[in-house]
Design a protein that fits this description.
The protein is built from eleven helices and nine strands. With about 240 residues, the protein is an alpha/beta fold.
Length: about 240
């Protein structure tokens, strides 16, 4: 843990990760390294069943640290994108179920960060979007890859090519969000979802997540083989016998 990223685990096995890089959780090189390190530690902790990411600030994340990006060479910019992808891929492939709680600004790299999670829940003050084309670049941390998988091919083009920003209700209608709630109830809603997941057999939950992730872009035969492999993992557990 450091001053920008902290986490704690409750007695249910829910791990709360909190971002606190004032004022808007701008994703600097070192901040991303810290986030990745935290999630790597979590991945190796078998007592953790669900991870909930939240911000302690009025905003989730306004995206990349533009002050840092401004002084980067093109070569450095490529290294920065590698750092983004390294962090987000770690989160996407986490053993545990992951939930992202979104409040305030969730823009650019911040929106790309949220796409690496299994579920996204936003409060009614959230504003979500991909403004990259308005400043002469494109989403470079998985946005053009993950967003179409979440909201659909044409909708992703609409979001990215117009650089529009959407409130939580609009984002839910597009399918970007799983749920919307009030700012006051955001964390409570996340805990309720986590509890729903925890009530099920843990190895089966983990196996189902891996099967979905690994088979999503595959052909039918390959996808069914992946499903069968993880079915066998769940089949040979004490949970299933019980």
């Amino acid at each position: 843990m450091n001053k920008f990223v902290s986490y704690n685990i409750n007695n249910q096995g829910i791990c709360f990760v909190e971002l606190n890089r004032s004022p808007v959780n701008a994703l600097s090189f070192d901040f991303l390294k810290s986030i990745k390190k935290t999630f790597t530690l979590i991945n190796n902790n078998k007592s953790i069943k669900v991870v909930i990411l939240k911000s302690s600030l009025p905003h989730f994340s306004a995206g990349a640290d533009l002050k840092e990006r401004k002084i980067m060479s093109k070569k450095d910019a490529n290294k920065a994108l590698d750092n983004f992808n390294d962090c987000f891929n770690t989160i996407e492939n986490l053993n545990q179920t992951t939930i992202c709680l979104i409040n305030g600004y969730c823009l650019g790299g911040g929106a790309e960060l949220s796409l690496a999670f299994d579920f996204r829940i936003a409060s009614d003050d959230a504003l979500i979007g991909f403004p990259e084309v308005s400043i002469g670049i494109i989403p470079g941390a998985g946005g053009t890859y993950r967003l179409p998988k979440i909201i659909g091919f044409s909708n992703a083009k609409y979001w990215i090519l117009t650089a529009k920003k959407f409130n939580s209700s609009e984002a839910k209608n597009f399918g970007f969000l799983n749920f919307c709630t009030t700012k006051k109830d955001l964390e409570l809603f996340g805990v309720r979802l986590a509890t729903d997941v925890i009530s099920n057999a843990p190895i089966a939950v983990k196996s189902a997540k891996k099967a979905i992730n690994k088979s999503f872009n595959s052909k039918v035969d390959t996808g069914l083989k992946i499903e069968r492999d993880y079915y066998k993992v769940a089949l040979n557990t004490k949970d299933r016998d019980e």
